[in-house]
Amino acid sequence: MGTLHLGFEIASLVVFTVILLIDLLLVIKRPHEPSMKESAWSFVFYMALAFAFAGVLWVMADAVFAGEFITGFLLEKSLSVDNLFVFIVIMSKFAVPRKYQQEVLMVGIIIALIARGLFIAMGVVIIDRFAGVFYLFGIFLLWTAWKQVSDDDDDDGDSFIMRTLRKVIPVTERYDENKLRTTVNGRTMFTPMLLVFVTIGLTDVMFALDSIPAIFGVTKNGFLVFTANLLALMGLRQLYFLLGGLLERLKYLHYGIGAILAFIGVKLLIHAIHEAPLEWLPGFEYLEKVPEVPTWLSLTFILVAMTVATLASLVSSRRDEQREIAAAESGSGSAADSTQD
């Protein structure tokens, strides 16, 4: 396996940071609801940037580096769709004006990058010193996969935090454009935008707990882990506006995400068996014969799982729409017959 020079890694991060900052400044300077065309072109740009970077990695290092990056990128892209569902709920719950949703998403992305950067740094140190942590990562991802498919949603913790914040600090009921603070009757108060940012930040931290162990199942290289997360998140804002109402129709997508997390969880457990063998466990020598999961298989599973879940969701939604139309036509027909009688 090849290596990457430190200078190349620093230069890459500088370029990506500049692109992110330019994107942020454009959003702040011209708040608006992007059109489908604008969102599509921006999304294509960030996808092309990720695949171009994979090509650069192939040239600068080797195919292994490129393969691990693109697999990690697609994994994080798949898991980030889960963020979009939650972002929609948050935007709706706090009634964020469409004009300022881009800015909220950009702040959320920056918070997510900071949170994930911290988790990645801790993860690299822990992995270097304690290979047995992969057992914990694997079990945690299997549990997270179960939570994904169990539909056990609970926002009591979120509601408690919001109620506490409203008691501690003065918050207005209405927005004042995109300001965090405003003046009401001569009194300085925070706007609901602060609560939105706090909720987005807490959500990002929770999602980082899932995604970082997952990508360490693809690569142990901290640089690849962070850049895969960075590029996956950079196109998240465009994907939010591009998909729009389509997200509500993807009712089986959480099963695809759950399957991916379970697959990576098993992969991490297999890796732990080879890196930190539990020789005291009876019959462990048989487990050591299980081969490690190659990167190409992980990439294939991610693509297949997301494709199947998406197609199944769209087919099911189409059938539901047809049933609703048929029921409406049947109802109108019955009403007409009753009128004639």
Write a concise keyword list for the protein shown above:
two-stranded antiparallel ribbon, 13 helices, mainly alpha, globular, 341 residues
**Share of residues in helices:** over 70%
Shape: globular
N-to-C series of helices and strands: HHHHHHEEHHHHHHH
For the sheet with most strands, the description reads:
2 strands, antiparallel
Number of strands: 2
Report the C-alpha radius of gyration, rounded: 23 Å
Which regions have little confidence, pLDDT < 50, spanning 5+ residues? none
- Cross-sheet strand order for the largest sheet: 1-2
As a percent range, the share of strand residues is: under 5%
Terminal-residue CA separation: 82 Å
Instruction: Return the average pLDDT rounded to an integer.
Output: 81
Describe this structure in words.
The structure is a single chain. The chain is mostly helical and 341 residues long. It has 13 helices and 2 strands, in the order ααααααββααααααα. It has helices at 6-29, 36-60, 63-93, 101-129, 133-150, 156-168, 192-215, 222-234, 236-243, 246-249, 253-275, 284-287, 295-340, and strands at 181-184, 187-190. A two-stranded antiparallel sheet has the order 1-2. A hairpin with a 2-residue loop joins β1 and β2. α2 (36-60) runs antiparallel to α8 and α2 packs antiparallel against α9 (236-243). The chain is globular. The model has no long low-confidence stretch (mean pLDDT 81).
In short:
The chain is mainly alpha-helical and 341 residues long. The chain has helices spanning 6-29, 36-60, 63-93, 101-129, 133-150, 156-168, 192-215, 222-234, 236-243, 246-249, 253-275, 284-287, 295-340, and strands at 181-184, 187-190.
